[in-house]
Amino acid sequence: MKRILKYVFLLSLLLFFVGAGGLAYTYIKHPDIQFGSIATKKIEEQKKFPADQISTLAVETDTTDISVIPSADVDIHVNLGGQISEQQRKGLTFETSQSKDGTLSVNVKKGIVFGFPFQFDGRLELIISVPQKAFERIELTSSTGDVKIKNAQAKQMKVETSTGNAFAQDSQTQDLAIHTSTGDVKLADLTGRIDLSTDTGNINATFSKKLEQDLTVDSSTGDVAIQLGALPDALRAELESSTGEIRARIKGLQAEEQKEHSFKAAYGTNGPLIRVTTSTGEIELTQKQ
Length: 289
Prior knowledge:
This protein is mainly beta. It has 2 helices and 22 strands. The protein has a domain of about 30 residues.
């Protein structure tokens, strides 16, 4: 009896691996196949708006990635593209509206598909091309998608995502706020007052130009790394971590208060303040060599 059960077990195990191998081979040879649904198809939808009539850009998605990049002309181009199944295509909503007060609203929500539980899902990206114009406000929100912004100008910028990552580069603003729940935050060469926060993600910020406004960073369990290029004439730093290590290496920065998990220093008078707070994450403040 035991021998029979052993053979049955081995046969079942063999059939499992044969089936799994067949599924893997089919997907590799035919990546457009969706199990429990039909094949994914490429979609691309474009809309254009006159930038001189837009002062505020408000974008919201659920799982779709968001990218704001420079435009080749004077218009705002909104492009939704990627791979998606026909079932998801039917449930997809891509809505844009332009209000009288100059707000361009863009909303993308992907349809929910009920099918085989191991369904291979498509991925969409919303690309918004904007001209070199100073907007009043740019607000980008996504539930699980990544959010990227590059070479944009606005008095106020706000980026928020739950599990996606956030990237901002070479942009000018008076006030920037980025928040993620579990995603990482990466920042490079932005101007203005900056507020970065995440619950469990890491934060990395680099500046090649002089820091002129305050930089506030808060992370619960993620690490924080800040690198400065050209130093301002004056600078203040307040770094604090509950259990994480703190490393500060800035030329001329004189420690006023230094403990195991806190560091306060400055040089010059009335300089911009770098304030970093973490619970368990490490903090590193350095100068580019």
